[in-house]
């Protein structure tokens, strides 16, 4: 079989989670309009992650009349789709940097990923000619390896094992830093080394590294005889209307497929999922997992595809058939279970419980925090629906899924003033952080309660253009509760996007230490939850004070 | 060291108490949170104390479900040392029957539950939940949140509801002093909390002054 890289198009929004967050939607569901606008031109796309679409040029390119035309077509379609979403969510401040995307065309996922990143601010696609692709990649810095981790897939187990406890991005960074210290700055330098030497130094990851640097696909084509047809099809006797029923049925099918392949020592990395409705409507999509699909991740992909199909196309009848066809198989090198920190019984039990609760109350009722980054304490973490994340991968990858935050946790406390090491946001609240936070942004569902902050004369405290308060805060009223101000810090201005009158946010934060009025030191009734002193953060925006955080 | 090793390997000694990190561990006669027990956290630093109590266990591999705290400050949890990849936040339905079923389902899978119960929870329901905790050998931490009821909170933060639980241990965390903040200057740099541990499973009440978040967690290896 010919060992040549597939020529692919990568459409990449590097800051998709932030954009989806700004639009007030989940990363996955917000991405669907973008996917559907690409699907108009290219029937079969692979959604690698929310924010990344990859598809092969073969076919679509001929249809569009060349790679350049195809890329331009996709670029225009995606730009229009994103503009439409931003217009639909008018009033919400959107940072242009969040909405930036790149379209790259090259041979192999890595080269195309790098091309997409280079095209990020150009506003037009970057197409690397087929003949030049290998040379072009050779000139690219190895640093791109860490930047393109989402496109080329997570690091192999071996490299992770070499750097204990590290997450995907961090271990790629370590590899990159090692390569640079060895004087290998460009992919060309790495490609000039023999594969055997790289394997000797980096283990199984060395092979990936060698292949990637030479511009090949990470997984070599199978050298064994083509496996017998392993398409799994599920036919329903009667059309199934319920999404959950289809997903449940798929559970068994996926487990069967994975076990069947595992018996031959194979794993699926690319899977084609086809769903047909009774009225002949059809949804098909390609899925890619560099580390191979587990039964769980197949089910997750099918659920995602069904969700997208139902919300976008609204099929008019129930599902009659579901087909899983493995498009690319690799020899399963097995996942090295770490002696420390592998998947344990506890992890499995917790995941099962999460799934049960999600089935009972809906997946939005049970969430996991993911780092997003913002100076607003309520927005620095996003609560992501539990079915939109792979909990197992999250734990195995440690901090990477949680945005490096847990790594920061250890360091931050020792460090004192700043939390989130290396991900510091200027103007964020200093440590210690409040344990209860309210979203003070306008139109948010986690609305912050309105409060009043008054000076000793009973006038509302206001802040002038130079951030001087009209008087010292003396009392705070929260609902029917009255509090006396003991001490305060601030006011701290929060000025965001002041250059854009439409999206500018101008607010002032005040940290307040308060005591319940009239009961300075007494014990409350029955001795429960008497608030002796309480620290809170209040935000003044558009002449109204809101409670932003409580140090409970 | 050896217990740590065994716990990490998932050996059957997992029934050992859940670990509690340094300054707080001296307050627990059993060296940690004994499985199957319930702990009531009260005082103005109740939530911070609950997070501090859970931190070491999550780092050792236990999962933590935070139930009914819709506005949890995740940064505060991280500063307390909680492993963020093992936190799950659940918002059960308001109807009390559904609430119980949801929490019972979570007890099946989680070693640690930090729960802010709804005000309408009855003593009977609380007892049922506690017997479930005992059967599953999890640890229940009931927190009372400050009463900051405003129009926007709509009962999201309530206090005193945890009294329907008759907990094995009572942890009361009251802030004694806030350092850094003045009348108009600096900002809160540290919070000193008096933590008292008492209750029916505690032979003699213990007390300690602790700085929260306590800076005792070495970065996880």
Summarize the structure.
Chain A is 35% helix and 24% strand. Chain A is built from 19 helices and 18 strands.
Outline the structure in words.
Chain A has 552 residues and is α+β, with helices and mostly antiparallel strands. Chain A has four domains: 7-213, Alpha-Beta Plaits; 232-331, DNA polymerase, Y-family, little finger domain (Dna Ligase, domain 1); 356-415, no CATH class; 436-550, no CATH class. Chain A has 19 helices and 18 strands. In chain A, the strands form four sheets. Chain A has a six-stranded antiparallel β-barrel. In chain A, strands 2-3-1-4-5 form a five-stranded mixed beta sheet, with helices on both faces. A four-stranded antiparallel beta sheet of chain A has the order 6-9-7-8, covered by helices on one side. In chain A, helix 6 links the parallel strand 4 and strand 5 (126-127). In chain A, helix 2 crosses helix 4, helix 13 packs across helix 14 (204-213) and helix 15 packs antiparallel against helix 16. Chain A is globular and about 85 Å long. Chain B is globular. Chain B has a single domain (17-146, 156-212), classed as P-loop containing nucleotide triphosphate hydrolases (Rossmann fold, 3-Layer(aba) Sandwich). Chain B has 221 residues and is α/β, with parallel strands linked by helices. In chain B, helix 5 (96-109) packs parallel to helix 6. The longest helix of chain B has 14 residues, at 46-59. Chain B starts with a helix and ends in a 9-residue tail after the last strand. Chain B has helices at 2-9, 22-25, 46-59, 74-80, 96-109, 123-136, and strands at 18-19, 32-33, 38-42, 64-67, 87-90, 112-115, 139-143, 169-179, 190-198, 206-212. Chain B has six helices and ten strands; from the N terminus they run αβαββαβαβαβαββββ. Chain B is 28% helix and 24% strand. At the A-B interface, helix 17, strand 10, helix 19, strand 12 and strand 15 of A face helix 3, helix 4, strand 5, helix 5 and strand 8 of B. Strand 10 of chain A pairs antiparallel with strand 5 of chain B.
């Amino acid at each position: 079989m010919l060992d040549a890289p597939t020529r692919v198009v990568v459409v990449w929004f590097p800051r998709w989670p932030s954009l989806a967050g700004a639009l007030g939607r989940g990363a996955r569901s917000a991405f669907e309009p973008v996917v559907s606008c690409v699907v108009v031109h290219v029937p079969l796309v692979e959604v690698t992650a929310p924010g990344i679409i990859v598809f092969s040029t073969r076919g679509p390119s001929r249809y569009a009349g060349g790679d350049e035309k195809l890329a331009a077509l996709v670029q225009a379609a995606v730009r229009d789709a994103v503009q439409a979403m931003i217009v639909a969510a008018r009033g919400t401040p959107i940072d242009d940097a969040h909405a930036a995307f790149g379209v790259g065309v090259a041979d192999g996922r890595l080269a195309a990923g790098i091309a997409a990143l280079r095209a990020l601010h150009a506003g037009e696609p970057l197409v690397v000619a087929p003949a030049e692709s290998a040379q072009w990649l050779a000139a690219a810095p190895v640093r791109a390896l860490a930047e393109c981790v989402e496109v080329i897939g997570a690091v192999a187990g071996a490299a992770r094992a070499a750097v204990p406890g590290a997450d995907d991005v961090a271990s790629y960074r370590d590899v990159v830093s090692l390569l640079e210290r060895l004087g290998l700055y460009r992919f060309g330098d790495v490609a000039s080394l023999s594969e055997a030497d790289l394997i000797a130094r980096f283990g199984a990851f060395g092979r990936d590294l060698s292949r990637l640097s030479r511009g090949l696909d990470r997984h070599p084509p199978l050298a064994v005889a083509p496996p017998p047809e392993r398409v799994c099809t599920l036919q329903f006797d009667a059309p199934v209307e319920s999404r959950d029923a289809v997903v449940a049925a798929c559970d068994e099918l996926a487990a069967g497929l994975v076990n069947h392949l595992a018996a031959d020592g194979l794993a699926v990395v690319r899977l084609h999922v086809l769903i047909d409705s009774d009225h002949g409507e059809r949804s098909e999509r390609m899925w890619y997992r560099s580390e191979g699909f587990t039964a769980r991740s197949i089910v997750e992909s099918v659920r995602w595809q069904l969700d997208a199909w139902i919300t976008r196309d609204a099929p008019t009848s129930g599902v009659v058939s579901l087909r899983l066809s493995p498009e690319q198989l690799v020899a399963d090198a097995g996942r090295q279970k770490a002696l420390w920190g592998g998947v344990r019984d506890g992890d499995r039990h917790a995941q099962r419980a999460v799934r049960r609760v999600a089935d009972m109350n809906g997946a939005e009722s049970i969430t996991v925090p993911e780092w997003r980054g913002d100076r607003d304490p309520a927005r620095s973490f996003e609560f992501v629906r539990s079915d939109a994340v792979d909990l197992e991968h999250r734990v195995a990858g440690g901090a990477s899924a949680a945005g490096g935050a847990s790594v920061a946790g250890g360091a931050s406390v020792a460090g004192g003033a700043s939390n989130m090491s290396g991900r510091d946001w200027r103007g964020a609240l200093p440590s210690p952080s409040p344990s209860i936070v309210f979203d003070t942004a306008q139109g948010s569902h986690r609305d912050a309660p309105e409060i009043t902050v008054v000076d000793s004369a009973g006038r509302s405290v206001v802040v002038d253009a130079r951030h001087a308060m009209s008087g010292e805060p003396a009392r705070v009223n929260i609902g029917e509760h009255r509090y006396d101000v003991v001490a305060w810090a601030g006011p701290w201005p929060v000025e965001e996007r002041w250059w854009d009158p439409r999206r500018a946010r101008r607010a002032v934060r005040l940290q307040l230490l308060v005591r319940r009025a009239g009961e300075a030191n007494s014990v409350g009734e029955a001795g429960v939850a008497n608030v002796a002193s309480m620290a809170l953060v209040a935000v003044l925006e558009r002449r109204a004070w809101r409670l932003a955080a409580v140090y409970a | 060291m050896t217990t740590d090793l065994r716990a990490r390997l998932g050996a059957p000694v997992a029934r050992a108490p859940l670990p509690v990190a340094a300054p707080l561990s001296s307050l627990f006669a059993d060296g940690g949170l004994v499985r199957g027990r319930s702990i009531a956290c009260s005082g103005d630093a109740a939530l911070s104390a609950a997070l501090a109590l859970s931190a070491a266990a999550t780092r050792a591999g236990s999962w933590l479900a935070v139930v009914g705290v819709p506005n949890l400050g995740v940064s505060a949890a991280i500063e307390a040392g909680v492993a963020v990849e093992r936190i799950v936040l659940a918002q059960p339905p308001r109807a009390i029957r559904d609430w119980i079923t949801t929490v019972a389902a979570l007890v099946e899978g989680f070693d640690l539950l930090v729960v802010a119960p709804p005000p309408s929870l009855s003593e009977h329901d609380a007892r049922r939940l506690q017997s479930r905790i005992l059967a599953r050998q999890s640890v229940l931490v009931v927190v009372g949140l400050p009463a900051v009821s405003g129009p926007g909170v709509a009962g999201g933060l309530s206090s005193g509801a945890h009294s329907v639980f008759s907990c094995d241990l009572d942890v009361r965390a009251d802030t004694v002093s806030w350092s850094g903040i003045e009348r108009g200057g600096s900002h809160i740099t540290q919070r000193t909390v008096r933590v008292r541990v008492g209750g029916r499973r505690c032979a003699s009440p213990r007390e300690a002054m602790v700085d929260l978040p306590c800076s005792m967690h070495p970065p996880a290896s």
